[in-house]
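Quick question, first post here. What does this chain look like in 3D?
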Amino acid sequence: MIATRLRAAALHLVLVVGALISLFPFYWTAVMATNTTKEMYQVPPRVTFGPALFENIGRLLSSIDFFGSMLNTLIVASCTTALVLFFDSIAAFAFAKYEFPGRRIMFGLLLLTYMLPMQLALIPQFVIMAELGWVGTLNALIVPAAANAFGIFWLRQYIKGAVPDDVLAAARIDGAGFFRQYWHVGLPAIRPGLAFLGITTFIAAWNDYTWPLIVMVDPSNLTLQVALSQLNTVHNLDYSLVLTGALLAVLPLAVVFVLFARGFIRDAMKGALRG
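> Answer (accepted):
Ran it through. Tokens below.
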């Protein structure tokens, strides 16, 4: 009994230390955002909150179009997440539960595209956007990201274990077609998987920097990460300003994570209890 309690206490101690180490960068960002750059260079450095937060926010808003770029990023991340959840789930449902000619070859090619570096597609993708006249518009950020190989692979593996074949067979006997089976049988069973994919997709779209930097040529129509990069100048780097922008940029991600993670944990626990 004593040995069991000691192991449990040691495990909790390791978890607490790991959580504190993971949270420390966010705490340090918040501390630096409430101080000035001069105070950051003090020895020893300040580890408590300062009074300069609202001053830094004011300077940030006067330096870049923060809320305009945040709105653009919110539109891109929300639309991308919604499209990925729909297209990836319906494709994964077909790959997991339906037999059709060339299924294995198509899935193998899909995995091959996932293994290729993203940088290889930048130039062809830009040429396509230019031909469509989408360079500098939000369409160039949303449409190319509407589906991805990782999401299809992840949901295919999830659907294979979460959606019983007997239930689908019963739905077919009742006259349900593909979309009805997908909507009424498949989606309710894979909500935890969709929640996980939604979190990762939204965060990836929110933090994307390389592709928006290339395709968003209009300085007045930037995403948040590209706009924040304009705070970095060659001759003067105001760390308090940069970290204030980073702090405000990460707050929506924290809200999304809390909302999706709660549903993910709740649905996962329901599935465990049913199992």
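Residues 229 and 242 are 8 Å apart (CA to CA).
The chain has a mean pLDDT of 86.
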